[in-house]
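Two proteins, back to back. First:
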Amino acid sequence: MKILFLCTGNTCRSPLAEVYLRSKRPQWSIDSAGVAAVAGTPATEQARSVAAEAGLELGEHKARPLEEISLEEYDKIYAMSSTHLRYLPEGHQGASLSTLDGQSKDVEDPYGRGLESYREAFSEIRKYLDRLLEEKV
């Protein structure tokens, strides 16, 4: 299984999703990218802190812009918001992460907000990904 997570800058939400799912399914190929990412930007300090609280490591993460990704190699593409899906080139489909839980809502962007916003976003991301894990056991 090859999965790509999308967010805006690829410095908080999608890297958190990537590192969480990779910890649960190391045999899968999991990546992340941002629709407005600056290549090489590290994960935010808050994202690294929240990941560390869960025993996960984001210290080596470097942001990747969506346009640098070969989308053909992915089985699934999940976006943190429906807006991110609009950036997928014609012929490529994805879904909002919340659809894994039968919802249609965005994972709020914690960027520029406090640590608690990051915790809330990560909690929501884990909830959706746990649904995926239940289905793909």
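And the second protein:
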Amino acid sequence: MRLIGALSHAIIDVAMIILLILGPRYAGFSGRQADLALVLAGSMFLLLAFTIAKLIRFAIHGAIELLIVILILIFPWIAGFARGVHSRNFYLFVGVVMLAIWFMTDFRGLRVRSADRGAGQE
């Protein structure tokens, strides 16, 4: 069951952007790994802004976000910093949290449609 709607997902996206910006400092890593987190935060911000401005549909937002999540999960290995425990664990944590949120989000608006159907039957 998809529990998270568009507004809740937007709020969670803002929290994830903040986590990607501040996380490296608090997780204890810098350099290329931290720079990559800032690029990902910028990408997430643009995705959120384009979705809020209705330049892309929420379903497309979900598809793009899934690609970002997959990249976050594999970046430690493809970017060559998997041996850095702090950075690797940070990316895995963020990726797993974002993947769980992705699975719980109703990107197709089915929750709204079923609520509308239920209201029409009263």
